[in-house]
Structure formats: C-alpha cells, structure tokens
Amino acid sequence: METQMMIDKRAENAHLEFKKLYGKYYKALVIRAFQFVSDRAVAEDIVQEVFASMWERDVDIKSASATHIYLYNGVRNRSFNYLEHQQVERSYIQKKMQEIPEYDINGSDEELRITEAIFDRIFTYIDQLPEKQRQVIRLMLEGKKFGEIVQELQLSASTVKTHRKRAMTFLKSKMTAKEYLLFLQFFI
Questions:
Q1: Hey, CA dihedral for 126, 131, 136, 139, is it positive or negative?
Q2: Shortest CA distance to 74 belongs to which of 109, 93, 49, 103?
Q3: pLDDT (0 to 100) of residue 76
Q4: pLDDT of residue 172
Q5: Residues 36, 80 contacting (CB under 8 angstroms)
Q6: d(CA 29, CA 35)
Q7: What is the structure's pLDDT at 113?
Q8: Within the chain, how many helices (H) and strands (E) appear?
Q9: CA 128, CA 185: separation in Å to the nearest integer?
Q10: Type and span of the H or E element at 126
Q11: Which part of the chain is CATH 1.10.10.10?
C-alpha cells in the first residue's frame, strides 16, 4: 500500500513539474515556431507536439540549460519538418496540375464551358457539406488564414481543423482527380 502511495506521489510531482515547465516555456516556444512557419495555429500545434512527445517519452532532463536546448531544438526540428512537408505537397500538386490540360480563358467557347462546368461541379460538392464544414471551406477559398477562420467562426483551432479535414475527405471522395487538384490550387 505504501509503495503505491509513493508511486502516486512521484507521478503527481512529475505532473506538477511538467506543468511548471509548460507554463515557463510555452509562449516563447510558440513565438519561436511562428518565426519559422508564419502561422500561429501551426506554431501552437508544433509546441504541443514537442511537449506531448516529451511527456510520452518521459524525458527526464536534469539541468535547466539541457531542458531549454531540448525544447528549442524540438520546436526547430518540427518546424523544419512541417515546412518540408508543405514544400513536398506543393511540388506534388504542381506536378499533377501540369498533367491536366490547360484551359485557355481566352480560348474557344467549348473550353470555357468545360472550365465553368468543372467549377460548377466543385461548388455543388461544397454545397453538399454540413454547414460548419462548408463555412470553413468557403472562408479558405476566400483566402482567409487559419487564425482568421478560427476568429470569424468563433471555434477552437482543433474544431476548425476537424471540420477542414472532414470536408477535404468528403470532397476528395466526390471529385475526380482533376477536379480535386484544381480545387487544391486554391489552398496554395
């Protein structure tokens, strides 16, 4: 019984120490991540991931300077990974878009009708989304940044992300590959 109480006390102490560490470094780490990624919500996610990883791995760093280095290196590395992933995503979409025949806006009436038909279908699919998902996608299409969408809809960042993810999954399932790639151009 006493052993269990000692284990519980150690766990409680570890939790309190972790909360202190989180309170001490969180804001500064978000600012650091923002310097790399230029998106507050992404910066906050990166910092959350670093702390979550530290907690899950049960990292026990004895000195303050080692803790500082661990956290800042973690934020830097995850920020670089995020930026690298974004670049790969952009390259993929650009490559795929090159495979889609171009439609000349000044071209024939037939080409114009085809382009309009594609956009009509895309917006028909968007209109089929549940209200909040549709609002998120429309605001994204208007060029709003993630933080602006969070503020305008007065939702948490994680809720907006969930709506965006579900909407994108639905749209991808409905659209042809060409339609979806054309649609993705609006997000980059």
A1: positive
A2: 49
A3: 93
A4: 87
A5: yes
A6: 10
A7: 61
A8: 8, 0
A9: 20
A10: helix 109-127
A11: 104-187
| Of 85, 66, 81, 79, the residue nearest 32 (C-alpha) | 79
CA angle 143, 149, 154 (to 5 degrees): 160
Tens digit of pLDDT for each residue in 30-57?
999 999 998 888 899 999 999 888 888 8
What is the location of CATH 1.10.1740 in the chain?
2-84
Q: How far apart are CA 27 and CA 44, in angstroms?
A: 9
| Tokens found for residue 145 | 């940044």
H or E stretch including 31?
helix 2-37
pLDDT at 90 (0 to 100)? 77
| CA angle (185, 186, 188) in 5-degree steps | 70
For the chain, which ranges sit under pLDDT 70? 1-2, 4-11, 60-61, 96-115, 186-188
The CB-side HSE value for 93 (13 A sphere, CA atoms) comes to 16
CA distance 185 to 167: 16
Residue 6 has a pLDDT of 62
Q: Given CATH 1.10.1740, say whether it is the number of domain 2-84.
A: yes
Q: Which helix (H) or strand (E) holds 158?
A: helix 157-174
Q: Supply the CATH classification number for the domain 104-187.
A: 1.10.10.10
Residues 71 and 29: beta-carbon distance below 8 Å: yes
- Say if CB 184 and CB 172 are below 8 A apart: no
Q: Which two tokens stand for residue 79?
A: 């920020």
